[in-house]
Amino acid sequence: MRLIVDENLPFTEAFFGKTAELVFLPGSEIKPADVKDADGLLVRSVTQVNEQLLQASKVKFVGTATIGVDHIDEAWLNTKGIKFVSSPGCNANSVVDYVVASLLWLALEDGFKLKDKVIGVVGVGQVGGRLAARLSQYGCKVLLNDPPRAIKGEKGFLDLHDVLQKADIVCLHTPLTSKGEFATKHLVGVDELALLEGKYLLNAGRGGVVDQQALKNQIKKKTAPWLLLDVFEGEPSLDQELITHCLLATPHIAGYSLEGKSRGTEMLYQAWCMHLGIEPEVTLAELLPVPPVDLLSLDTACGVEEACRRAAHLCYHPLNDSWRLLKALKTNAASAGVYQALRKNYPIRREFSSLKVKAANPEQASALKALGFTLS
Ligand SMILES: NC(=O)c1ccc[n+]([C@@H]2O[C@H](COP(=O)([O-])OP(=O)(O)OC[C@H]3O[C@@H](n4cnc5c(N)ncnc54)[C@H](O)[C@@H]3O)[C@@H](O)[C@H]2O)c1
Ligand SMILES: O=C(O)[C@H](O)[C@H](O)COP(=O)(O)O
């Protein structure tokens, strides 16, 4: 068995090594000649998997270690009987950590309490659902928009414009789709952006969900929302003018915790074993290293939100990623190269759940638990 593997998938040797010969390649450079004699292909979001790539190959198994599948022509794979698997939810906790860490930073900088804000969540699936749960347990008022769920009769959802009007902070967590009743391409366009003036807009879904040109026009008119963007239209190229305007701009790394990326590999390994009709022998639990900080012990003098912020930023501070991106863009005009290099050399980051926190009082304890930390 021969597997072509994106070199940015962690633990592939440990998971797949006994079952196949592995050929590692940069994901954006995988070509038809590379996959011609392969049995399987393991990718991330930067490899377009379609007829052009696979028509002359004998690949029978394609796996993406990502939640998003907008880089995969699933319909074509289906017609060819090629087994396709994605990794639903693999890095959802990582994205939620990213959002919570960002919002706690924003609250400090802009002088508000996160708990007092109304948060709109657009797209209430694995990521949006977990985000909404954490924030509402923390005490925020959370407004939900998800028409594909609402139309099935599920309760608790509002119309998109209602959410944009009523929320102080809007977080986008839909997939990018361009067909069908609920297509999300440019879901947030001129009319929606007009409702967001003076508010905060965080996008950690896909760049194309926001009409970037409309956003840039709004920036010129000084009516744009404050932006926290992890995803951009046209990646890997980045619009430097837009990035300069962001409060936080990160190179599509919201899901890049070690746990999030590795769970993707583990999910593909389990699907590959099933495809081969063998029992999985390796688990992620035995591969993950011990977290670098064992225990955070908080003092009672630390206020509840400050306690949460300290715990969050001990695990992850989004400003580090944003600063690295801004700095690299200042010294390098080729934004695609900067974007790719930062993602390829991403430092190890652990999820909130990996940190044990000793709270000083019950208020701290319940807020920390709500936001995803493990209480000691
Ligand atoms: N920035 C990152 O690093 C990162 C990491 C993981 C996922 N993502 C992106 O986030 C997306 C969401 O991830 P997920 O795991 O929650 O996916 P999911 O499939 O579990 O949830 C997506 C939700 O969006 C809803 N939705 C679809 N169309 C909509 C519309 N028009 N308006 C409102 N809601 C709509 C769906 O009904 C669903 O509930 C992924 O598709 C991926 O593109 C980004
Ligand atoms: O869809 C996903 O799972 C995420 O966007 C994922 O983190 C993207 O990472 P990439 O495949 O681009 O490295």
From TrEMBL:
Transmembrane segments: none annotated. The gene is pdxB. Its EC number is 1.1.1.290. Belongs to the D-isomer specific 2-hydroxyacid dehydrogenase family. PdxB subfamily. It is found in: Cytoplasm. This is Erythronate-4-phosphate dehydrogenase. Pathway: Cofactor biosynthesis; pyridoxine 5'-phosphate biosynthesis; pyridoxine 5'-phosphate from D-erythrose 4-phosphate: step 2/5. The keyword Translocase does not apply. It catalyses: 4-phospho-D-erythronate + NAD(+) = (R)-3-hydroxy-2-oxo-4-phosphooxybutanoate + NADH + H(+). Homodimer. It holds the Pfam family 2-Hacid_dh_C. The keyword Cytoplasm applies. Residues 287-372 form the Erythronate-4-phosphate dehydrogenase dimerisation domain. Residues 110-254 form the D-isomer specific 2-hydroxyacid dehydrogenase NAD-binding domain. Residues 33-255 form the D-isomer specific 2-hydroxyacid dehydrogenase catalytic domain. Substrate binds at S45, T66, Y256. It is an enzyme of class 1 (oxidoreductase). Its main location: cytoplasm. Catalyzes the oxidation of erythronate-4-phosphate to 3-hydroxy-2-oxo-4-phosphonooxybutanoate. InterPro entries: D-isomer_2_OHA_DH_cat_dom (IPR006139), D-isomer_DH_NAD-bd (IPR006140), Erythronate-4-P_DHase (IPR020921), Erythronate-4-P_DHase_dimer (IPR024531), NAD(P)-bd_dom_sf (IPR036291), PdxB_dimer_sf (IPR038251).
